[in-house]
Give the backbone structure.
Amino acid sequence: MSVHRTSGVVAWSDTDASGRFHHTAAYRWAENTEHAFYRSVLPDADIGRFPRRATAASYHRPLMAGDEYTVELELEHIGNSSLAYTWTVTGPAGVCVHGEHTVVHVDAGGRPAPVPPALRERFATAGEVA
């Protein structure tokens, strides 16, 4: 479906005592990429209405403080109220993390609600976004 990429540098605060990136950093990077994706397709989207329903990640290579990385996030599926993503974090030596997460669009009361039609339409035509 649609793909979005962001890049960054591993900050010291992203690492554990060994200097390698902490496993939670990959989730933050993926979430930041997801939010950048929303803003790129619909700048006024209410990105606070997409809490996580499920997450998973597998770790393949470490990243160290100062390493550059790229996150590639792909929208795999749009349901009635949910969006499913897969993502990869790549560093200088190749793939570091493969992950996936599902979010649910919620209304003001926190109950599942249909994905806004404007966002659904924009995702369908977004293609690949850098």
